[in-house]
Amino acid sequence: MIKILGIACLFFGFLGIAIDKIKMEKEKISTFVEIRSLVEYLLKEIEYSHIPIPDICKEYLNRDEGKLQTFLEEVCRKFEEEEGASFEKIWEKETENLHIGKETKLQLFKLGKCFGFSNMGHQLSTIERFLREMDKTILHNEKKFQDNKKLILYFGVMSGLLLSIILL
């Protein structure tokens, strides 16, 4: 009886690991979507309002509470503290301090490279290019997620079954 209970715990443990991996992949995609939303907001505000990027980030903080909330708060706080420092450098420094996946961190790092151009037209075109790259990244990750979702689940179930059979 104890053997069967141990095997069931092992099986459901592997199943739980597989489900957690699927949740992590969904979370990564939703973070990319949130980054895209931020970029789209930045682009519209720069283009139509001609507001500086730090002020736009503060406005974005007031309208949205997402995964980037603490990151943007820290960037805005550091920018106010370190007068004369470039927003791009502060953005990159804070991006390095984030505890997120490599791919997400790379996208945020790339976004920081879009800031700091004195020519508004150049800055807008750089942000538009980044927005197109984000669309491609989101589509790629969603396709990869759909392809791998069942595979991850099957792998978790099969690993649990295999280990259960070995232990019998």
Write a brief structural summary.
The protein has 168 residues and is mainly α. The protein is built from 6 helices and no strands. The longest helix has 48 residues, at 2-49.
Structural summary, described in words:
This protein is mostly helical. The protein has one domain (19-167). Helices cover 85% and strands 0% of the residues. The chain contains 6 helices and no strands. Helix 1 packs across helix 2 (53-63) and helix 2 packs antiparallel against helix 3. The radius of gyration is 21 Å and the shape is elongated.
> How many discrete domains?
1
Q: How many individual helices? A: 6
Specify the biggest β-sheet: none
**Secondary-structure element order, N to C:** HHHHHH
The gyration radius over C-alpha positions equals 21 Å
Strand content of the residues, in percent? under 5%
Helix content: over 70%
Structural class: mainly alpha
**Shape estimate:** elongated
Mean pLDDT: 81
- How many distinct beta strands? 0
Query: Uncertain spans, ≥5 residues at pLDDT below 50?
Result: none
CA-to-CA gap between the ends? 12 Å
SSE inventory with pairings:
Layout: H1 2-49, H2 53-63, H3 69-81, H4 87-97, H5 102-112, H6 120-167
Task: Name the features.
168 residues, 6 helices
